[in-house]
Amino acid sequence: MTQETLRQLARQLNKNKFLIAKPATDVFQCVQAFILLVKGVKIQDWLLAQLLMSCSLPQMVETIIEKKIDYANVILCKKLYQLIPQQQNSLGKLIYQLISQSLNFLEGERGKSQRSKSTILRHEPSVLWQQHQQNNFILKQECYQSKVKIIKNQKIKEEDEKKFELLKEKMKKINKNSYFISPRKIQFEQQEKIILSNNNSERQLIHNKQMRSLRSFRSSFYD
Fold first, then answer.
1. Where on the tree of life does the source sit, at the highest rank (predicted)?
2. CB 102 within 8 Å of CB 34
3. For residue 191, what are the contacts with CB-CB under 8 A and spacing of at least 6?
4. What ranges do the domains of the chain cover?
5. Which of 6, 31, 33, 183 is least crowded, fewest Cβ atoms below 10 Å from its Cβ?
6. Residue 63's closest CA among 41, 39, 98?
């Protein structure tokens, strides 16, 4: 309801209302207070204040409705608002009413926000306790899963060791029932054969030489 009241007042204060060369004191002070509330500055020049109110009044009202006002501006506006004299004309009354409604709206919204924060603070211990309980539950769950994983890995390791022992036993039985020659032994035997073969060839060569010498000797003897 207050938001619509603010918009309605802004419509009543159309730009033609501010087309005055020299405003009354109460009108100028009301305009100063309203601009101070929204913009945070106290304007001393009526022409600049007149321009702002004529061109930007609807936007300034929306800024108030959207609660985009620094609370320091509210305090400064209140101080100036309390110094405004009794209104003398309809324009002054309208602006005065606009300021009053704006301040009431902002203070009401601030009160709601503070009550909401207070409620959150009252409920915060229980929320923290719930979070603590939840964290404990998650931690216990992680510990349980870790233990299950360790036990599972231990079982797998034991099963692998059993399989390995069975395989060793099978290999022992196979070795008992079969003749196995290592590659080194085969290589050694081949080398021995080569050496023997070479030795036999050498002996044969010596023998042949000896036989030739003997035949040559016999031949020369008979001659």
1. Eukaryota
2. yes
3. none
4. 2-121, 181-216
5. 183
6. 39
**Residues contacting residue 110 through CB under 8 Å, at least 6 positions apart:** 71
Q: Tell me the C-alpha distance between 123 and 115, whole Å.
A: 12
CB of 132 closer than 8 Å to CB of 139: no
> pLDDT tens, position by position, for the chain (223 residues)?
588 999 999 998 876 688 888 888 889 999 999 999 999 999 999 999 999 998 899 999 999 999 999 999 999 999 999 998 876 688 889 999 999 999 999 998 888 877 766 555 555 566 666 776 787 778 778 777 877 788 887 888 788 777 777 777 777 777 665 544 556 666 666 777 776 666 666 666 666 666 766 666 566 655 5
E strands, 28-112, are none
**58 secondary structure, DSSP code:** H
Q: Distance of CA 209 to CAs 99, 201, 216, 218, Å?
A: 141, 12, 11, 14
Region label for 67, one of left (φ > 0), alpha (ψ between -120 and 50) or beta (otherwise) = left
Tokens in use for 12? 């009543």
